[in-house]
Every structure is written in C-alpha cells, then in structure tokens.
Amino acid sequence: MSQGQQRRPSSDQAQADGGGQSQEQGGGAVRYGDVFLAVTGGLAEKPVAPQDAATMQSAENLVFGETIKGGPAATMQSAAMRNERMGVVGHDQATDATAEQGVTVSETCVPGGRIVTEFVAGQVVSQYLAPDGADPARGAAGDDTKMTIGEALEAAGYAAGDRPVEHSDAAAIQAAKVRATGQDVYIPGDLAAQAQSAADANLWAARDEEKAKLGEVLSNATAKLVAHKERNATAKLVADKEVESDDAARVASAETRNKDDKTVRPGGIAASVAAAARLNKQDA
Questions:
Q1: Could you tell me if 107 and 63 are in contact, meaning their C-beta atoms sit under 8 angstroms apart?
Q2: For the packed helices 269-283 and 167-181, what is the interaxial angle rounded to 10 degrees?
Q3: Which of the four pLDDT bands, split at 50, 70 and 90, describes residue 231?
Q4: Is residue 20 pLDDT above 60, yes or no?
Q5: Which pLDDT belongs to residue 284?
Q6: Is the pLDDT at 139 greater than 50, yes or no?
Q7: Most buried residue among 5, 195, 260, 279 by CB atoms closer than 10 A?
C-alpha cells in the first residue's frame, strides 16, 4: 500500500474553532457532516475551513498529480469558499482536528485497479475504485467464468432469504470484505458495517418480523464503481476478486469463531464462499 504524505497546516495558522465558533452556532455554515455523511462526532459539527481544503488538495496532488474532479478536495474547496464569504472562517484558518491529525490519501492495489481512501482527521470521507483498465470485479485476468467473493455473498443472501442477520454472519461478511478489498478498515455504511449494525439491532428486536434479513443486506454485494460526482458515497464492495481456497478458509474461520457450536452453517456465507472456491478450482 502506498500512502500520500500526511500534511498539516503550520502551527501558526489560526484555528477555525476560535474564529468561527460563535457564528457556527448561528447556523448557515457548511459543516463536515453536511458534505460527508459518513463523518461523525465533533468533526461533523466543524465548518470546513480554507486550509483544510488546501491540505486535502496537496495530498491529492501528491498521490495523483492533480486534484480529483468532484473528489473530497474539490468538495471541501467549495464549502470553504462559501464559509469564507459568510465570514465564518478566515482565509488562513484550519479546524483544530485537521491541524492536529491532518489528512491522508492512501492507495491499495487490488486486481484490476486501486482502492483509493481519503481521510480527514482519521475519518474516511471517500473511498472508491480507480480501475487500471481491467474489469475490477473480475480481477486482472478478467475471466468471467470465475466466481467472485461478491457473487458468493449474493448467492448466500439469496439462499438465506428471510433469515435474520446474526453476528456470525457479520463476522463472515467482514472477513469476506477484507479478502475482496485488501483493506481491514471500518467504513461507515459499507457492506460489513451494514451487517454488523443489522446483527446488533436484531438482538433487540422483539419479533422475527422486525429483524433485518441477510438477503437484504447481501443484495447487490458485488463491486460497484462510484462515479466522480458520487465519490463521497460508500459502495457496498469497492473491489472484488475471484474466490480462492485461502479466502474460503478465512471466511469459515470468522464464521465459526462467532457461532456457539463453532461449526459452519449449512448453506450459509462460509459454505457459499467455499463452494465458489471449489468451482473456481475445478474450472482452472
């Protein structure tokens, strides 16, 4: 994985917290939570400042040689310009979180392209697949006769139908996501996060009819390319790969560790991924 150098505004720059806090309370400022829905906590309430945008632009230029059209830097620049015109922040100001923790742009190579993840103060504001020309959902070889991890997950969801999501399912989905994308990072709203939220909520549901179903969570699990203008949205799987035996073993281990009887569920996620691995091996 290659990672863009983390860059921070200089320490003598004023903080947006001090310059814009009183006006922030009055409303109208464009905050991080307004432009990046996955941002939470204190950062979500901070107005986007000009030096925040400049720092993100520098990070994107460092990795890509240019500012990504419609990407986080461009979004932050637009928001910061509005906040500056409103007098919420000064031209040389940065938020405290960005000044202290900076921004990061990282790349992870996967078959068919690179997963690009952009962070502000440690929180993911964008993740998308930058293809290298091959179909990223099919791997570098582009062999459409092979089953991918995403397709195996969709097959498991179809077989599960209305079965409620359990924590063993969420663990298996998390393991499958890591194997498909090469990234073990929490992304709000992605496939693994949805599964975990569903499993947690199901513990408190009074009736089975109220519980989130595995088939719903795993529908359309295969990799999605996110358009430039939608890059701050989170896809279910930003990358995919053909299922191999090692993938099946990791998913099975995650599922069994989180089941009371420590066994693979018949027709479940691990079983589906294992079947896909066997089919791919036979085709080879």
A1: yes
A2: 30
A3: very low
A4: no
A5: 58
A6: no
A7: 195
**How far apart are the C-alpha atoms of 106 and 115, rounded to whole Å?**
8
d(CA 131, CA 113): 4
Percent of the chain whose pLDDT exceeds 70: 78
**2 sits in which H/E element:** strand 2-3
Q: CA 113, 220, 225: angle at the middle one, nearest 5? A: 30
94/23 Cα distance (integer angstroms): 15
Q: How many CA atoms lie within 13 A of 176 on its CB side?
A: 40
CA distance 46 to 60: 22
2 by Cβ neighbours in 10 Å (0-12 / 13-18 / 19+) ranks as exposed
Query: Which pLDDT belongs to residue 15?
Result: 42
Instruction: List the chain domain ranges.
Output: 32-107, 145-283
Residue 94 sits at φ, ψ, to 5 deg, of -140, 155
Going 26 to 30 to 36 to 41, the CA torsion angle's sign is: negative
- pLDDT of amino acid 254: 95
Q: Report the distance separating Cα 86 and Cα 149, nearest Å.
A: 48
